[in-house]
Amino acid sequence: MYRTHTCGELRIENVGQKVTLAGWVQKARKLGGMTFVDLRDRYGITQLVVEGSAAPELQEVASSLGREFVIQVSGEVLERESKNAKMPTGDIEIRLETINILNKSVTPPFTIEENSDGGEDLRAKYRYLDLRRGPLQRALKIRHDIAHEIRNYLNDQNFMEIETPYLIKSTPEGARDFVVPSRMNPGTFYALPQSPQTFKQLLMVAGYDRYFQIVRCFRDEDLRADRQPEFTQIDCEMSFVEQEDVLNTFEGMMRTLFKKICNVDIPNPIPRMSWYDAMDFYGSDKPDIRFGMKIHEITGLVKGYGFSVFDSCDYIGAICVDGAASYTRKEIDALTEWVKRPQVGAKGLVYIKVNEDGSIKSSIDKFYSPEQLQAVADAMEAKKGDMILVMCGAKRKTQTMLGVLRLEMGNRLGYRDPFNFAPLWIVDFPLFEWDDETNRFYAMHHPFTAPKPEHLDWYYSNEKEDLERVCANAYDFVLNGTELGGGSIRIHEAAMQERMFEILGISKEDADYKFGFIINAFKFGAPPHGGLAFGFDRVCALFGGQETIRDYIAFPKNNQGRDVMIDSPSYIDQTQMDELFLQSTAPAPEE
Description:
This protein has 18 helices and 22 strands. By secondary structure, it is an alpha+beta fold. A hairpin with a 4-residue loop joins β18 (432-435) and β19 (440-443).
């Protein structure tokens, strides 16, 4: 054995013991005739000391140690004279008797410390070094602990973990597929799964009534902080269940995770909100309910008074910001420019201030009397010192812009503490979205989502207005303004599934080619079933108090979908291209 203990294990009760440790040199420093070394592994840091009275050979080796050298040391555990309360091992140190250099290291390109001096790109190139740092080690430990607790919980609920294929059939209906050419079947391609959706439904047909999988999924889409081309889902499906059964089961799972991982008790039951209320009051289908500042419609209070901007709009909405009446004109102008950015898309911003003396000041006060503006303030329940921010336009677009502004003001006011957890179920989504450009319906979730049973008459109607009223038997789990997971009760009857394809404009021939296997399976006694999938990477990040998922993935891609550590994706040679019957029209690689 290279070690008797880890670098995070020894405590005051170990004083007097002879121990052997192995790890990486965090830093070495000489103080007078003594050399101090911080030795690190993934469990912690232990201070080593080579005393001035030590053998010259030992002092010479200690003096040669550089950052990130891999060493094995032996010695006696001593009580430290100057204890370090910030370190779990801060009460002790090891008086060294031997040092064995297992491997030397060149000077690393950045400091391997809690707060590194390396930029994001540099740390990505040397990811294996970045993974030695404490923040990433803790992130991956959270990921491991969450996976462990998920498996324990679902096993106790009688779920079976079953693997599904990675090489499947391309069924492009959402994000782009990653495709893989088949050498043995020239001219044909596999796709990497965006989710195991059809396979988990087939497992229900096969009688495996409780399935789960912590599974890798793939989507060829543009990236952002919480997206990666390959990501992990907690994928689950259940037979003979209704929506209530699914929500209760996975509320239990999330309650267990919060308690085991964060020692936090979340509400029981978890609140529920319809999609329509989420959009009307928060401007988002993943609302952050850690704070108020709800959106109010004020169309009837301000339209028709000669202000052409409002008079020409279908919808006028507003939020009330606590204590923001102190904003200067310069700050309001900067906020107006902020909402005009493409990420928000507003044309402007109207404000109404309720000053501390109770007077009203507004950017539109020449169009409205103080009494009319006071009526708006009363409807918004604005207090002295508050400021009302107003936008107008098409209803859903305006609500969405107000939702983005609401989150920004929540950030500025410190309302979005990452360790204040506010979970929420969003239910009663529309089943379909109409697109004016393509003049067709799209599935808001996916084409295997069942309609609400009480909306079947509308589902089988040929009227566009009826189809727009159909609600999906679907649900999303939202935490702190992030969608952590979603699912639905599935279609399990062939006729209902064929009707879905008809509404989505998928021809019978196309449906048979893409989905014939599952339609046929439904004809062999498919049980009622439903499930959901959680974004495992997102769960890990939010439990760790972060918005980005990258630190919770061992080897993530950058914003261009590249792994700069291994330089991937990369070109393949002509021999491989020929074997796969491929030709490329892309520019030739630079020599």
